[in-house]
Amino acid sequence: MQKRNITLLLFIILNSSFLFSQVKFDTNFESGCLGSYKLIDSVTIPVQGKDSLTILNYNIFSRFDPLNPVDTSLSPSARWYYFRMTGVKNKLIYLTVNNSEAIRPFFSYDNKNFERFSADENSKRGRLIKLYDRDTVYICHYIPYTYSRMESKVKEWSENKDVKTRNIGYSHDSLAMPMLRITDSQVKDKNKKIVWIHGRSHPSESPASWHLEALVNKILGNDKYAREIRKSTIFYIVPFINPDGVYGGYSRSSSTGVNLEINWDRPDSLTMPEVKVLKKTIDSITSRKPIDLFLNMHSQIANSATYWIHTAKSTNDAFFAKQLLLSNLTSNDNPFYSSADQSFSDMAPRYVEGWMWNKFHDRTLAITFETPYTYFRENIKGEWVSTQNLDKLALNSLNAITDLLELPVKSRLVVYKTKSYRRRDWSKIKSAQMVDFNGFQFVAKKANATLEYSVSNMESGTYAVYKWVPGPAVNVSPEGTNRWQYLFDITQKRRGNLSVKVFAGTEGDLFNAILLKKVQ
Ligand SMILES: [Zn+2]
Q1: What's the 478 CA to ligand 1 centre distance in angstroms?
Q2: What spacing in Å lies between the alpha carbon of 209 and ligand 1's midpoint?
């Protein structure tokens, strides 16, 4: 017995040093990041005949961002890890991830196709146990979205005739910051709505980039819906506002350690070059009129998507209600986002939203949207975040933009214009504390009161009719309110005026806008 133990011990010792040189860790590729690693123990056990199984146990330490030189009281983040291990084939490897989360992170054998570790392989939070069947494996917090990918997508998108791309400036480390301007150039700009979207202030938040990419793909779609959107809107898209951070595999900062997200209220001497570039670009775009909608795309570790809605007390009632309208429109017909997921904070000048508020007040709806890394709506049994469901979520985002800005898109049209109505059947009320379009509602004085909406020049086809159910502007919408409610289908035989008659179910029923969605 004792002899066997000694033999086994010798076997382990001899093999440990041998094996240690067998698994190599490195991050010599774009966005790669790892602080350090430490072999805790290793063992090789005989399995069958001559076969043996090597088990290695490593502690992985994610790398912290540099200390923020602008504000040294902030603690640096180490969320992002993305490293390569070689020599792992047929080895059972235990990895304990420190300084960051390992909640079913991703691995890839070719650095292209990424897959989540299974629940069994990650049954204990922070611990990954897997037997690898290829020699090289890449491990990361979420599917990377690199500067090179952004560059190649920008190149691809720029081939569309409705896209004009320019470099708005350079990062601290001299990487270009491209911006797309998307609109139908055949249509005059004068009455178009203006939407700004940017992403990757925080480099670790790659799900936000997959969502943003899908959104741009949809805006540039060849379908009628996308073409109509481009006729009535100018989109300014800056995919990466922190190129150095993404390129260098940082978590929440640029390569200098500065968190660009909170660098908007600093004096010039402490304002980072990227933020200066953005301020200058926004100033030039808004010299004639403000941006209508400004979306700041992020990802968060909470298990839900969210908007960061600014409180009414730090803004005003109408602005608060408008943010809720956007949020509730996004949650419409959306399995991945509910208004119960909303987050609230006071407007603060260190963020881009606060900087915009100081300049444009409630004329620009500037807001942050976050996608999760893990799963949606706190539902661990539901779908885990993937490029596929972020693509679906992007359609909800685009529909919400279309509805909020009341774009004249005939295949998805918000209508609030009514023909004259009977005053003995309806009263018209105004309130800034309701979530609605244009700040008014019709209140039915009796059941079956009718109201007729009207819209000109609608092409033939079938339209699904929805009514907006206005609810109070509160943190959690009462059940059944602040959403589109399906009423009926209506068929338009030939192009022309389309009238839609709706009926109050009961006295006190509220009507505001209706939505006409072309179904065929
Ligand atoms: Zn963020």
Answers
A1: 29
A2: 11
